[in-house]
Specification:
Layout lengths: L2 H17 L4 H15 L5 H13 L4 H40 L9 H25 L3 H16 L3 H18 L1 H4 L12 H24 L3 H15 L8 H8 L7 H12 L8 H8 L6 H30 L3 H30 L3 H15 L5 H14 L4
Protein name: Chromate efflux transporter
Keywords: Cell membrane, Membrane, Transmembrane, Transmembrane helix
Main location: membrane
């Protein structure tokens, strides 16, 4: 066990957890900047491979990418620490909201609007950089553009999975001659047998928890079941999980719609994955507030499927990724991922943040600070938050 690597993974992921605002697409931009460009833990191609794998899996895609990178860097415990570091700041903040800030509406705060504008710049930088590397030929550019158009016309997580599959098929048929060269693969310290056990555990829990909930009327079991299913059955992550979470806590009478929406508003104000809304819901829900134990149980339950799926899929991905025909298909998948990210840059990132010419101006400044002046993302995020406070006075 390499303790230094484990501590390094925890330290880097914790810093990302403190500074990664803007939702899952923006998180991928922050990850690329930190893990690929700055630390060079993996190549651009390997990073795109990991993103493509996590797009296929249900659950919080950005958190799964972080877990996969942590596993590749420092084993199974490294994946766990990467998840802990990335989620811990928002978990703590949202449980604090649940304790002290019920009913506070932060959705229209100026500084929050500035953070969303910063996300526009971060995602634009990620799309630009990935396109230059992964969609720089006529065929790959065509796949990326077609993928973006399809994702914009039919915005659905299930359609995204179909786009990736179609891009892979086009890559397999059209890119074998010019894009089938060997590329570095994210190392996986997990064997296929171990991976199969992780996948089996994922399926067993998905089947067993509802049966246990029906047999044993216990609030903790019901909480674990509802949040595990939310994490296991949602493709696309982010805001897509909200209906399932609301269904888990509002109809049983564990909290009101107003309390749920207050937590959602608070979740927009903190860094890290939106799935950490579970910390607020688990803390505040129940016949009486569950407190810290409920918040931690809900967080563990909603993220456990992500960890099991990534750990289970990585060893098989590692094997098939090395096959020449699959590399051809994966070149197409990588181009498709670029297209999906480009579509996401417009909707929801751009459409939710840029509402006026002054917003666009702030986004341009943030983009310039990132790409020309090479300022660290956390500093650009802080400057954008201040800019968001000033926008109403311009």
């Amino acid at each position: 066990m390499n303790v230094n690597r484990l501590l390094e993974v925890l330290r880097v992921s914790l810093r990302l957890g403190l500074t990664s605002f803007g939702g899952p697409i923006a998180h991928l931009g922050y990850f690329r900047e930190e893990y690929v460009k700055r630390r060079k833990w993996l190549t651009e191609e390997s990073y795109a491979d990991v993103v493509a794998l996590c797009q296929f899996l249900p659950g919080p895609a950005s958190s799964q990418v972080g877990i996969a990178i942590g596993i590749g860097r420092a084993g199974l415990l490294g994946g766990l620490l990467a998840w802990v570091g990335f989620t811990l700041p928002s978990v703590v903040l949202l449980m604090a909201f649940a304790y002290a800030l019920h009913g506070v509406d932060v959705r229209d705060a100026g500084w929050l609007h500035g953070l969303m504008i910063a996300a526009v710049a971060v995602v634009a930088q990620a799309v630009w950089g990935m396109a230059a590397k992964l969609a720089n030929g006529k065929t790959t550019a065509a796949i990326a553009i077609a993928s973006a158009v399809a994702a914009l016309l039919v915005p659905s997580p299930f359609v995204q999975a179909g786009i990736i599959a179609a891009a892979g098929l086009l890559g397999w048929r059209c890119l074998r001659a010019d894009n089938a060269g060997a590329a570095e693969i994210l190392p996986s310290p997990i064997g296929r047998r171990t991976g199969a056990w992780f996948l089996a555990a994922f399926g067993a829990l998905l089947l067993a928890l509802p049966l246990l909930r029906a047999a044993v009327p216990n609030h903790a079991i019901a909480l674990a079941d509802g949040f595990y299913r939310a994490g296991a059955l949602v493709f696309g992550g982010g805001h897509v999980v909200l209906p399932l979470l609301q269904q888990s806590v509002v109809p049983p009478g564990w909290m009101t719609d107003g309390q749920f929406l207050a937590g959602y508003g608070a979740a927009q104000a903190v860094p890290g994955p939106l799935f950490t809304l579970a910390a607020y819901l688990g803390f505040a829900s129940g016949p009486a507030p569950n407190g810290i134990a409920g918040g931690l149980l809900a967080v563990a339950a909603i993220f456990l499927p992500a960890y099991l799926l990534v750990a289970g899929a990585l060893p098989f991905w590692h094997v098939i990724r090395a096959k020449p025909a699959f590399r051809s298909a994966l070149a197409g998948v990588n181009a498709g991922v670029v297209g999906i990210l480009a579509a996401a840059l417009y909707d929801p990132v751009w459409t939710s943040a840029v509402r006026a010419p002054s917003d666009f101006g702030l986004a341009l400044i943030a983009f310039g600070l990132l790409t020309v002046w090479k300022l660290p993302p956390w500093l650009v995020v802080a400057a954008s938050a201040l800019g968001g406070l000033a926008l109403p006075y311009l």
